[in-house]
Amino acid sequence: MEHKKTYNAKELKSPHGSLIVEGPVSPEILASYEFHRDLVAFRPPAQQHKALIEIAGLPEGRIIIARNEHMIVGYVTYLYPDPLERWSEGGMEDLIELGAIEVIPQFRGASVGKSLLTVSMMDDAMEDYIIITTEYYWHWDLKGTGLNVWEYRKIMEKMMNAGGLVWYATDDPEISSHPANCLMARIGKRVRPESVEKFDRLRFMNRFMY
């Protein structure tokens, strides 16, 4: 499967300045920008910046960023699921995962997350993929936002809906371990029926186990 990537961008006005939301960006472009010190949700900023540059270089890897001039203040990643996760077990070339989305606290509430997802889906090539995301409450910044698990989940769902991702049921043990965790997905218009069936089988792998 050929992994096409078409660059798109939009400007977003916010109380803290104007942002450019753009991507997929190349590793070279990513490396040329500064990475905000408050992007700490997954790794220390320098390490995460390096990881994003590596993902951008993968054939299927996509990084969409929000930047204030030369400073990256938010991003979303797309790549094949982790080999240790069930979602990679089908070896599906047309299933990619929205692996991480992060926006610095200063720009939260300015629709940056929604804009990252909107720009992601402007690329027609996304119609060739099943895009999944697994939401786990232990990754959420409950302390920083002061929200409870259900309030945060509602915000995450609304943000994912902006990219066309909707809730899907699954018996995945990690997702099932807490009712706030969830699987969300977007099935592109050109995804083959066989791939949708394969995805359904991945969602329910324990169906016949008693």
Structural features, described:
Helices cover 29% and strands 25% of the residues. It has 210 residues and is of the alpha+beta class. It has a single domain (8-203), classed as Aminopeptidase (3-Layer(aba) Sandwich). Strands 1, 2, 3, 4, 5, 6, 7, 8 and 9 form a 9-stranded mixed β-sheet that branches. A hairpin with a 6-residue loop joins strand 1 and strand 2 (19-23). Helix 3 (112-120) runs parallel beside helix 5. The longest helix is centred in the last third of the chain and has 14 residues, at 149-162. Residues 36-118 form the N-acetyltransferase domain. This is Acetoin utilization protein AcuA. Pfam families: Acetyltransf_1 (PF00583). InterPro entries: AcuA, Acyl_CoA_acyltransferase, GNAT_dom.
Protein topology:
Blueprint: E1 8-12, E2 19-23, H1 27-32, E3 34-35, H2 45-56, E4 62-68, E5 71-79, E6 95-103, H3 112-120, E7 130-135, H4 142-145, H5 149-162, E8 166-168, H6 173-176, E9 182-187, H7 193-203
Parallel strand pairs: 3-5, 6-7
Antiparallel strand pairs: 1-2, 2-4, 4-5, 5-6, 7-9, 8-9
Helix pairs in contact: 3-5
List keywords for this structure.
9 strands; single chain; alpha+beta; 7 helices; Aminopeptidase
